[in-house]
């Protein structure tokens, strides 16, 4: 690994050029360096995106939020405005590894590493977040769920990289949440995860909901039946039971060292319920 | 006469399952020699694999340890540790 | 493959060194700068034995490439004791017997200091979760947590005095 | 907080240093990053080594071609098994128990066959890590892949692939005619089993399994080795015994012991896993060819794949009791995975299985079984935790079935002084009943449980060992002292060595500085393991200090022109008892300053073979809360009570108890070796090999019950191993309490707990 080439461009143009020449994008490096070291990825030149203009920092624009792709996850949790607006997204980012990892790992890295278990991804998809992708053809904005196409695979073309992640403005009585199940209490990969974003009306009835599951399919999956289960209803046990079933329906997990098909499927239902209940409670408080 | 009890599986394999012996010995060294005389080769086995509990205290590689006439002597497997 | 020339500030002092481009910062600290206080326990960011501060942020130096250190301010365990005296955390670790083999201790101390720098009055739960990235196999964490909480109390008292 | 329950002082020495909690002498080095561990050494001209490991769990090595690797610029040496002597089988005692030197050699470097994923097949030394890594890729090994077996029960099947084609089971009469993977049968019995069960009014039987787990020390194995052209060698390495490393290196490389000097590095945890060699002989072989010092450091992946886990096991236990809770008979059969070569701790498991209990009738059968997994190494009370998990689980069920309090049933059946241990000898000066009583009286035991929580209790036993140790004590000219031992300090033992010497000399602990010396600088000492160091090496230290005191008294007598019998040693000074003399006391410093005039330097060295290490008992109480939807088990409260002899440095005794309990909790809840169908380990990193992190555990309350060991000058006994014996069962019994049914297969990880809940409806 020590013979790798390292390149840290300062501009989007230089980064695109370096990536187009076969470089591998790195932001925090907390996944990439581990995979390179373990030989799970073939060695290749590394393009460090942390110095690229626009990849660092969190800012608000037109009511929405723009998060630089290489911004360390810890900064999300330290940003009071973002925590207030998107607590679930922050929760997801805040579960990527230890305190040490939090100071390096980024949303874009967590996304583009394309692990089915990435903790920040379900919450981002639930939040209807988008990515600004920079590449040889300029910039394009795509929904987060369009980036990952399979285990370890993304839709990014040669020379392309994620420059920013954007979160939409929040209506009142809207909130999100993310939960995961791990064998320990920290330092684990999600055996299953659930992100939920919910919008209530003034009466406390669900107007809109999106629930997204992680680690139960090759990519994060949207619970198609969540709207049918919840929209038009108040929060009660029956609604959560419907959601639980709807969540289990979309699961297509594998059995591996971290969990079985049955376990992942059942837990996905449990987590979906719990995440929605948390998001619901948060939304009610924002009346 | 020391009352010797064999518990070690290795020893039992040697003695053909016989578990109790009376041995005239006042030290571990003499005990081993006497046992080896009775079961040729057992002495070597004891030196390599067996610990000797004398009145409840476990000894190994302790030729000089004294045996009283009424001593309880137990041949057990050696214990390691972590 | 040519080595790169890196300039950084380590424990307050300017340093320069050459490193292979794919070398980890941990290896550079240990092999190029002779700072062997940070340890490699896993090489994958799971044990925290290599914890250091980079620009006042706690990181695993095994998950950072040496060239990334260019222009950064780095603090290691070697810089924790100042002016001939131990840091209160170091002292409390000794008083509470919060170490047995001592291999994870430098990483735990650097991580604990990062905690107290940003949260002078952590709860036991906050301390345990903050330090979850630092594996210790000897102590069962009991005395480690007590030492950190006790050091925090002493530091608070020193600040308010 | 932590309590010390003091027994009335029996022998009553007024101890001033023993029992206090001074800062450890090596502490500042360890909190400042100065302490040099195995990988921290660096020599001029040093090469970096790397080891090529088998990707197959079982294969014949058809050929190894190292030509291309040797030709790579910067490569200075390449070795394979051909560079080591092809040794004959020979039992040799240098580690914790006898090892077969041939097996050890084959484990260090595979010859003809690889027996597990990660088995070393070749090694290189080069001018840099990157060159060494590139060279590994140029070594061409042709394997003929063979069928493999990793599970202990499957390996016992007559149709299982054979690891060692000539292996005939030992301990079976008549010996089997066909080879198998069963290396040895152990048996232990007493009384009349049938009659015992016939007398029982309740019989509980259950089968249990545990998975292979790793010691999990945070420091990977590391060494630097150098050999000159005439064979003289120096090794710097992190191990539990520099003399063990010396012996094994000399044997494996065909060197004279006198030509090998081993310098102990600080050791970053061992727990039994560093009681053998993996890297040192390889580094020496590479140095022999290259003529330069060679450093070898394992990655975490290598540590998991190629170094000692302890056995995965399958255990069946049947215990009968009368209605009033008295055990009438017990039957235990245990199958222990040895890994690639014979030598699981099945024998010790047979001996400890029922050691806590007074039983008239029992039968215990143990099987040592080879599998295509790394050769097991010692792990803290080797063999005992797994069988305790099974036996204590069945006792828990008996107590529930009979409506008897779980501590009461153990008090009723627990061993006492004068009873014959299940493994043979009669117990003397044991503290099991005192430990049970302390657990019963502890506030934790009577504290109410929250709804849905469960509480478990379990007991555990370990022998502890003594053995050979050397210690030297040198008095300095200002009255301070140096105590030198050959026992690596894993958990703070240098502090207790200094304290014991200081106690005898009558000075403060900080006046005695301890050193762990290399093999050329102190007499032979067995490795640090078996909970022996504070007991055995401590005994040598104490005796050396006593010799120094005798010398000091003689010199005071010379000064006063009186007989030595008229001199007493009190509080660090010589007192003249001769009524004819009107003299002031002579301090240690004064006597030390006059050493040259009174006969020369004052020092003493004692070598001994300590016998009579007292066994230890532990009783643990564990509370759990279970998330019945996710299956997650949280430990909400944990108390570990242990009979510790006398605590020399109580804080480090507590530390041993807390650390052992934490390891046992990890074993119970989430740790396990996971092998794929391809026989490869699936979780060879700390992410998926889940040791407890700080947020997984509560405070672990250590309660020390002091029943002094009469064989030690201060009553000390080993304390390091007992605490890992009860936790597996304590956790499982607590989970049983919370769930209402028993889970008998470790680990009790969330997927398994949830699946069990689903099955239970």
From TrEMBL, chain A:
<dbReference type="InterPro" id="IPR016169">
    <property type="entry name" value="FAD-bd_PCMH_sub2"/>
</dbReference>
<keyword id="KW-0274">FAD</keyword>
<dbReference type="InterPro" id="IPR016166">
    <property type="entry name" value="FAD-bd_PCMH"/>
</dbReference>
<dbReference type="Pfam" id="PF00941">
    <property type="entry name" value="FAD_binding_5"/>
</dbReference>
<dbReference type="Pfam" id="PF03450">
    <property type="entry name" value="CO_deh_flav_C"/>
</dbReference>
<dbReference type="InterPro" id="IPR051312">
    <property type="entry name" value="Diverse_Substr_Oxidored"/>
</dbReference>
<protein>
    <submittedName>
        <fullName>Carbon-monoxide dehydrogenase medium subunit</fullName>
        <ecNumber>1.2.7.4</ecNumber>
    </submittedName>
</protein>
<dbReference type="InterPro" id="IPR016167">
    <property type="entry name" value="FAD-bd_PCMH_sub1"/>
</dbReference>
<keyword id="KW-0285">Flavoprotein</keyword>
<dbReference type="GO" id="GO:0043885">
    <property type="term" value="F:anaerobic carbon-monoxide dehydrogenase activity"/>
</dbReference>
<dbReference type="InterPro" id="IPR036318">
    <property type="entry name" value="FAD-bd_PCMH-like_sf"/>
</dbReference>
<feature type="domain" description="FAD-binding PCMH-type">
    <location>
        <begin position="1"/>
        <end position="172"/>
    </location>
</feature>
TrEMBL record, chain B:
<dbReference type="InterPro" id="IPR012675">
    <property type="entry name" value="Beta-grasp_dom_sf"/>
</dbReference>
<dbReference type="InterPro" id="IPR016155">
    <property type="entry name" value="Mopterin_synth/thiamin_S_b"/>
</dbReference>
<dbReference type="InterPro" id="IPR003749">
    <property type="entry name" value="ThiS/MoaD-like"/>
</dbReference>
<dbReference type="Pfam" id="PF02597">
    <property type="entry name" value="ThiS"/>
</dbReference>
<protein>
    <recommendedName>
        <fullName>Molybdopterin synthase sulfur carrier subunit</fullName>
    </recommendedName>
</protein>
TrEMBL record, chain C:
<keyword id="KW-0408">Iron</keyword>
<dbReference type="InterPro" id="IPR036010">
    <property type="entry name" value="2Fe-2S_ferredoxin-like_sf"/>
</dbReference>
<dbReference type="InterPro" id="IPR006058">
    <property type="entry name" value="2Fe2S_fd_BS"/>
</dbReference>
<dbReference type="InterPro" id="IPR002888">
    <property type="entry name" value="2Fe-2S-bd"/>
</dbReference>
<keyword id="KW-0001">2Fe-2S</keyword>
<protein>
    <submittedName>
        <fullName>Carbon-monoxide dehydrogenase small subunit</fullName>
        <ecNumber>1.2.7.4</ecNumber>
    </submittedName>
</protein>
<dbReference type="InterPro" id="IPR051452">
    <property type="entry name" value="Diverse_Oxidoreductases"/>
</dbReference>
<dbReference type="Pfam" id="PF00111">
    <property type="entry name" value="Fer2"/>
</dbReference>
<dbReference type="Pfam" id="PF01799">
    <property type="entry name" value="Fer2_2"/>
</dbReference>
<keyword id="KW-0411">Iron-sulfur</keyword>
<dbReference type="GO" id="GO:0043885">
    <property type="term" value="F:anaerobic carbon-monoxide dehydrogenase activity"/>
</dbReference>
<keyword id="KW-0479">Metal-binding</keyword>
TrEMBL record, chain D:
<dbReference type="Pfam" id="PF01315">
    <property type="entry name" value="Ald_Xan_dh_C"/>
</dbReference>
<dbReference type="InterPro" id="IPR008274">
    <property type="entry name" value="AldOxase/xan_DH_MoCoBD1"/>
</dbReference>
<dbReference type="InterPro" id="IPR037165">
    <property type="entry name" value="AldOxase/xan_DH_Mopterin-bd_sf"/>
</dbReference>
<feature type="domain" description="Aldehyde oxidase/xanthine dehydrogenase a/b hammerhead">
    <location>
        <begin position="32"/>
        <end position="147"/>
    </location>
</feature>
<dbReference type="InterPro" id="IPR000674">
    <property type="entry name" value="Ald_Oxase/Xan_DH_a/b"/>
</dbReference>
<dbReference type="Pfam" id="PF02738">
    <property type="entry name" value="MoCoBD_1"/>
</dbReference>
<protein>
    <submittedName>
        <fullName>CO/xanthine dehydrogenase Mo-binding subunit</fullName>
    </submittedName>
</protein>
<keyword id="KW-0500">Molybdenum</keyword>
<keyword id="KW-0560">Oxidoreductase</keyword>
<dbReference type="InterPro" id="IPR016208">
    <property type="entry name" value="Ald_Oxase/xanthine_DH-like"/>
</dbReference>
<dbReference type="InterPro" id="IPR036856">
    <property type="entry name" value="Ald_Oxase/Xan_DH_a/b_sf"/>
</dbReference>
<dbReference type="Pfam" id="PF20256">
    <property type="entry name" value="MoCoBD_2"/>
</dbReference>
């Amino acid at each position: 690994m020590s013979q790798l080439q390292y390149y840290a461009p300062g501009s989007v143009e230089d980064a695109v050029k370096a990536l187009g020449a076969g470089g591998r994008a790195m932001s925090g490096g907390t996944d990439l360096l581990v995979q390179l070291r373990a030989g799970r990825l073939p060695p290749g030149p590394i393009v460090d995106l942390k110095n690229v203009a626009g990849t660092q920092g969190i800012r608000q624009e037109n009511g929405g939020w723009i998060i630089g792709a290489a911004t360390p996850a810890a900064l999300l949790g330290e940003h009071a405005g973002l925590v207030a607006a998107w607590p679930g997204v922050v929760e997801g980012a805040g579960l990527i590894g230890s305190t040490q990892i939090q100071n390096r790992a980024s949303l874009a890295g967590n996304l583009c590493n394309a692990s089915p278990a990435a903790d920040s991804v379900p919450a981002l998809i639930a939040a209807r977040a988008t990515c600004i992708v920079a590449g040889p053809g300029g910039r394009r904005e795509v929904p987060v769920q369009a980036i990952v196409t399979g285990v370890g695979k993304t839709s990014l073309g040669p020379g392309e990289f994620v420059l920013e992640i954007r979160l939409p403005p929040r209506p009142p009585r809207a909130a999100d949440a993310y939960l995961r199940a791990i064998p320990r209490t920290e330092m684990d990969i999600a055996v299953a995860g659930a992100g939920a974003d919910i919008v209530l009306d003034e009466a406390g009835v669900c107007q809109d909901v999106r629930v997204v599951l992680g680690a139960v399919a090759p990519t994060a999956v949207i619970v198609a039946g969540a709207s049918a289960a919840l929209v038009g209803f108040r929060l009660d046990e029956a609604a959560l039971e419907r959601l639980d079933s709807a969540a289990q329906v979309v699961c297509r997990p594998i059995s591996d060292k971290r969990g079985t098909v049955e376990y992942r499927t059942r837990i996905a239902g449990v987590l979906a319920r719990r995440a929605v209940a948390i998001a619901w409670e948060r939304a009610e408080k924002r009346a | 006469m020391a009352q010797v009890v064999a518990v070690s599986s290795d020893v039992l394999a040697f003695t053909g399952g016989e578990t109790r012996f009376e041995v005239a010995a006042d030290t571990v060294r003499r005990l081993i020699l006497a046992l080896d005389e009775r079961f040729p080769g057992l002495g070597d086995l004891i030196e390599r694999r067996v610990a000797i509990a004398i009145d409840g205290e476990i000894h190994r590689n302790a030729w000089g340890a004294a045996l009283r006439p009424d001593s309880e002597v137990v041949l057990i497997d050696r214990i390691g540790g972590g | 493959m040519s080595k790169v020339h890196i300039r950084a500030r380590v424990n307050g002092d300017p340093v320069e060194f050459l490193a292979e481009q794919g070398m980890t910062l941990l290896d550079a600290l240990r092999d190029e700068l002779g700072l062997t206080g940070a340890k490699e326990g896993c090489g994958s960011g799971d044990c925290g034995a290599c914890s250091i501060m980079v620009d006042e942020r706690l990181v695993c130096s095994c998950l950072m490439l040496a060239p990334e250190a260019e222009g950064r301010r780095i603090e290691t365990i070697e810089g924790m004791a100042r002016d001939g005296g131990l840091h209160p955390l170091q002292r409390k670790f000794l008083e509470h017997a919060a170490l047995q083999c001592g291999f994870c201790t430098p990483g735990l101390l650097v991580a604990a200091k990062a905690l107290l720098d940003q949260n002078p009055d952590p709860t036991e739960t906050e301390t345990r979760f903050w330090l979850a990235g630092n594996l210790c196999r000897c102590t069962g964490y009991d005395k480690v947590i007590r030492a950190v909480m006790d050091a925090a109390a002493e530091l608070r008292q020193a600040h308010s005095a | 907080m932590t309590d010390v329950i003091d027994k009335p002082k029996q022998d009553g020495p007024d101890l001033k240093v023993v029992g206090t909690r001074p800062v450890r002498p090596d502490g500042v080095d360890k909190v400042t990053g100065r302490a040099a561990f195995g990988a921290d050494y660096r020599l001029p001209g040093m090469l970096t080594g790397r080891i090529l490991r088998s990707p197959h769990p079982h294969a014949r090595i058809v050929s190894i071609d190292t030509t291309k690797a040797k030709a790579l610029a910067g490569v200075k040496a390449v070795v394979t098994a051909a560079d080591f002597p092809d040794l004959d089988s020979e039992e040799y005692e240098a580690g914790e128990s006898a090892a077969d030197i041939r097996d050890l050699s084959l484990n260090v470097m595979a010859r003809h066959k690889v027996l597990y994923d990660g088995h070393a097949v070749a090694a290189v030394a080069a001018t840099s890590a990157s060159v060494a890594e590139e060279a590994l890729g140029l070594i061409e090994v042709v394997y003929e892949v063979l069928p493999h077996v990793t599970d202990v029960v499957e390996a016992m099947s007559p149709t299982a692939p054979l690891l060692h084609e000539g292996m005939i089971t030992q301990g079976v009469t008549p010996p089997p005619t066909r080879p198998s993977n069963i290396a040895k049968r152990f048996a232990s019995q007493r009384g009349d089993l049938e009659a015992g069960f016939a007398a029982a009014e309740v019989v509980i039987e259950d089968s249990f399994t545990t998975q292979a787990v790793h010691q999990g020390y945070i420091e990977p194995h590391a060494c630097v080795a150098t050999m000159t052209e005439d064979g003289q060698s120096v090794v710097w390495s992190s191990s539990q015994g520099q003399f063990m490393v010396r012996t094994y290196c000399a044997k494996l490389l065909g060197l004279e012991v006198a030509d090998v000097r081993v310098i102990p590095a600080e050791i970053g945890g061992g727990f039994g896993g560093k009681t053998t060699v993996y890297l040192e002989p390889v580094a020496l072989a590479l140095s022999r060819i290259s003529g330069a010092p060679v450093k070898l450091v394992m990655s975490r992946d290598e540590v998991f794949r190629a170094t000692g886990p302890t056995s995965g096991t399958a255990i069946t236990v049947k215990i009968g009791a009368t209605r009033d809770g008295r055990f009438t008979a017990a039957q235990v059969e245990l199958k222990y995975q040895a890994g690639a070569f014979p030598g699981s701790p099945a024998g010790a498991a047979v001996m400890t299985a029922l050691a806590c209990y007074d039983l008239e009738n029992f039968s215990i059968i143990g099987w040592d079984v080879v599998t295509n997994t790394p050769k097991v190494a010692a792990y803290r009370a080797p063999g005992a935790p797994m069988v305790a998990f099974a036996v204590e689980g069945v006792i828990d069920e008996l107590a529930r079935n009979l409506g008897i309090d779980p501590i009461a049933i153990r008090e009723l059946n627990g061993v006492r002084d004068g009873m014959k241990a299940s493994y043979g000898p009669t117990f003397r000066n044991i503290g099991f009943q005192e430990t049970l009583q302390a657990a019963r009286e502890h506030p934790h035991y009577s504290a109410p449980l929250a709804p849905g929580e469960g509480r478990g209790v379990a007991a555990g036993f370990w022998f502890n060992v003594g053995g050979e140790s050397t210690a030297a004590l040198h008095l300095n000219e200002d009255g301070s002292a140096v105590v030198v031992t050959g026992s690596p300090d894993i958990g703070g033992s240098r502090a207790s060595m200094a304290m014991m010497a200081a106690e005898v000399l009558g000075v403060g602990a900080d006046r005695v500085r301890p050193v762990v010396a290399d093999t050329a600088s102190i007499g032979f000492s067995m490795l640090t393991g078996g909970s022996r160091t504070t007991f055995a090496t401590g005994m040598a230290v104490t005796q050396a200090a006593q010799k120094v005191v005798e010398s000091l008294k003689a010199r005071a007598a010379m000064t006063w022109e009186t007989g030595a019998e008229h001199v007493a040693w009190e509080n660090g000074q010589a007192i003249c008892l001769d009524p004819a003399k009107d003299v002031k006391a002579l301090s240690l410093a004064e006597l030390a300053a006059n050493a040259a005039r009174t006969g020369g330097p004052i020092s003493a060295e004692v070598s001994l073979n300590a016998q009579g290490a007292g066994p230890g008992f532990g009783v643990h109480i564990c509370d759990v809360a279970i998330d019945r939807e996710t299956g997650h088990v949280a430990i909400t409260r944990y108390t570990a009570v242990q009979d510790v002899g006398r605590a020399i440095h109580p804080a480090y005794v507590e530390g041993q108890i807390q650390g052992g309990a934490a390891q046992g909790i990890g074993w119970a809840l989430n740790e396990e070796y996971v092998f794929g169908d391809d026989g490869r380990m699936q979780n060879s990193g700390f992410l998926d090999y889940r040791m407890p992190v700080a947020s997984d555990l509560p405070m672990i309350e250590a309660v020390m019950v002091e029943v002094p060991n009469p064989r030690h000058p201060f009553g000390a006994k080993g304390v390091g191993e007992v605490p890992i014996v009860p936790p597996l069962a304590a956790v499982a019994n607590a989970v049983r309490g919370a769930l209402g049914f028993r889970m008998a297969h470790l680990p009790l990880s969330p997927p398994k707990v949830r699946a069990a809940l689903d099955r239970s409806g």
